[in-house]
Amino acid sequence: MGAGEFLQRLQPLKAEMEAAFFRVYQPFHVQEETFDALLAMLDEQMHNRSSLHRELDRGRAWFSSAPAGIRLNYSAVPSVAQISMRARELRELGIGWVQLSEVPFPHTQNSRQLLQTLIDAWHAEGFAVGVDFDVSGTAADDPWARQALKGDPAMQQRYWMIADAKLASLYSLFSKENETGVFYKLEKIHQYVYRNPQTQCWLLDYKNPQVLTAVLERFCSLADLGVDAIELRQLDHMWKECKTQPLYPQVPDLFALFANAGKLVCPSVLVIGHSEAAAHDLQILAQRAPRATAIIDQAAMINGWNSLATRDTKMQRADMIFHALNPSTIAIHPVGCDQGICWNFNVEAAMMRGWNPESHRQFLTDFYTGQALGSFAEGESDPGSGRCYGTLASWAGCGRAMDNHEPYELENSCRRVLLLQGLSLAMSGMPLLSDGDELGALNDVSFRLDPGKEQDRRWLQRPVYIEEKAQQRFSPLSLEYRIFQSLKVMLQVRSDYPNWNWGQEQILDTANDALLVWSRFCENQRLLFLFNFTESPQYCPLTSLFNEGEQARELLTGRRISGSQKTLGLKAYEFLWLIVEGDVDSIQ
To answer: What Gene3D superfamilies does the record point to (predicted)?
Structure first.
C-alpha cells in the first residue's frame, strides 16, 4: 500500500479533521506541527494493516446492508467450543453481527490472543464482530496508570490530576454526577485523580493533545485484531470542566476525529459513537461525524419506554421531527442499555407537555421499578446515579404476569415486548438486541450470590444463557417461542426489502397521541408504520395515510387494507408495517 492511498483517503477528510482539531486545541496554543504528527501516526498505522484487512478496507462495507445485531457481555461470552451452539440460534433468528461489551483493552500478548481467538471464532460462524472501547479513561491497573503512580510526569499528564485538595473537593459541588468523591486521592504521588463514578476508571485529560494521539493508537490496535466495529463508549466523559453540562462542545469534535481516523486507517470498521446525551446533542454528534459513522440512538430508546409508561407519543414525535439524526449517519437502535438507562429525555419537549423534568424522571424511575400506580414493570434503580435496570421482558411486565398467573396481562406484556422490538426494526438504521431479548429473558437476581457482582445492578439485566431455556423457542406454548418466532418473522421481512433503510421519514399527524405513525418514501416504494402504545384499541383516519383509491399490504401478516375504509383500528399494543401498493383496481 503506497502513500498515495493514504493521501487519496485523506483528501476529502483533511479540512474537516483540521477544523475539528483546532476547535478543540487552539485555546491551548497547539501548533500545526502537532496535527501533522497526528496524521503521520495514522499514515503509519494504515501501512501496518495486514494484507487481509487492507483488502477488506477496499471492498464493500459489511454494514451497508444494515444487519441486525445483538449485544453480548464479554465476560459472559461462551468459550470457543460453545460459540458454535450459540451462533446456530442467532443465525436462525437472523442476526448478522455480535457486539461485545466491556472488553478490557488487551495490553498483554495473552489477552490479545484470547480476544483474537474469540473474534476469529465468530467470524468462522459468519458473524461480524464489534468490540467496545472506553475512550474517556483507563482502569487503575492500566500500564499508563501504573507508570503515573511510579512518578512518570508524562503519564501523569495524560490524566486529569489535581494536587490541591480544596480544588478537588470544590469540583464535586459542580459535578453532574450525583455521587460524591469523584476525585480520588493517590497517596503515593500526593495527587487527586478524577474517577468515573460508574466505571471507576481514571479520566484521561484530552486537553493534552498527546492523549488524543495515544488513544487513537490504541483504537488502531483494536482494529488490527480484525474487528468489524468499534463502539466508542463514555463519550460524555471525554471532556470535563468545573461546571455542569450534558455534552461539552469539544466532544463532538473529538468524536469526529476518531471517526475520521477510522475512515483513514480502517474504513471497513464501523465506528460507533455511544453517548447518553439527549436527542439534540446526539444530533450534533451526528452532524460532525463523517458519512457512514454510527450513533447509538439512546433518545429513541428512551422515548419508546416513555411512550409506554405515559401512553403518549407526543415527545417521541417531536424528537423524530426536530432532532432526527443526519441521514448520512447510521442510527443504531437498542431497546435496552447494558449500563442501565438514564432518563435523558428532551427536557424542552417534556415541558411543552406540561411535565416537570425532575418529577417526570422520578415518575419513570418509579414506573420501571414497579412502584408507580398502574405500573406493569419489574426493575431496580440506583439512587446515586438515577439509573434504572431491568431486561426488556421484565420491564414489559412478563415476569409479574407469570408470577401472578394472569394470562391476559401476559398477553399484553408479550405485545409490549414485540411493540418495542418492532419499533427498533422499523426505524432506519441497524437494530441492536440485548442478550436474552430474543427469548424474553427476565431479570436475573443470581448475581447477588457472586461477591464480585452483588453490588453491581447491571448484572440484573445480563441473564445467564441457558441452553435448555433457548430450546423452549421450539415449544409453541412458551414465552420463548412467542417472542423468538415473532422476532424472526420481523427480521426476515426486514431483510426481504433491500431498500428498507432508504428514504426520508415523515411523521404523520393522526390527531391521536396514543399512536406513533410515520411513512418512508424510496423511489416507488412507500412504507407506513403504525404503533399503538396503549392497552386500549385506537383508531386512525385512513385519509391521513393514503388515498381512497390506494391499497396497502401488511408485511407481517399479508392482510390487505383498502383506502376506501374510513378508519383503521389497532388493537392493544398492536403495530403494523404497511407497504402502499397503489391503485386498488390495478392490483386486482
So the answer is: Glycosidases, Golgi alpha-mannosidase II, Oligo-1,6-glucosidase, Domain 2
Identify the domain boundary among 167, 183, 203: 203
Q: Is 297 helix (H, G, I), strand (E, B) or coil?
A: coil
Q: Give the chain's length.
A: 588
CATH number at residue 172: 3.90.400.10
Give the tens place of pLDDT for each residue, 56-76: 999 999 999 999 999 999 988
User: What cell numbers appear for 486 in the block?
Assistant: 415473532
Burial class (CB in 10 A: 0-12, 13-18, 19+), 139: middle
Per DSSP, what are the bridge partners of residue 273? 232, 295
Q: Give the largest Cα separation in the chain, rounded.
A: 83
Report whether 584 contacts 546 (CB < 8 A).
no
Q: How far apart are CA 527 and CA 542, in angstroms?
A: 14
Q: 546 pLDDT exceeds 60?
A: yes
Q: Residue 4 falls within a domain, yes or no?
A: no
Query: How many CB atoms neighbour CB 157 within 10 A?
Result: 15
Phi, psi of 184 (to 5 degrees): -115, 130
Q: What does the alpha-carbon distance between residue 19 and residue 32 come to, in Å, rounded to a whole number?
A: 11
By DSSP bridging, strand 575-583 and strand 525-532 are antiparallel
Mean of per-residue pLDDT scores for the chain: 93
Angle subtended by helix axes 32-47 and 14-25, to nearest 10: 130
Helix (H, G, I), strand (E, B) or coil at 352: helix
Do 378 and 394 touch, CB atoms closer than 8 A? yes
Helix (H, G, I), strand (E, B) or coil at 168: helix
Q: What is the pLDDT of residues 262-280, one digit of tens each?
A: 999 999 999 999 999 999 9
Helix (H, G, I), strand (E, B), or coil: what is residue 486?
helix
Q: What is the pTM of this model?
A: 0.95
Rounded CA-CA distance 73/103 in Å is 8
Residue that terminates a domain, selected from 203, 234, 253: 203
Give the β-pairing of 538-541 and 567-570: antiparallel
Number of domains in the chain: 2
Helix (H) or strand (E) holding 270: strand 270-273
For 496, the 3-state DSSP assignment is: helix
Other Cβ atoms within 10 Å of 164 Cβ, number: 10
Amino acid at 310: T
Q: Which residues contact 356 (CB under 8 A, 6 or more apart)?
A: none
Residue 561 structural domain: 505-587
Predicted local confidence at residue 584, as pLDDT: 43
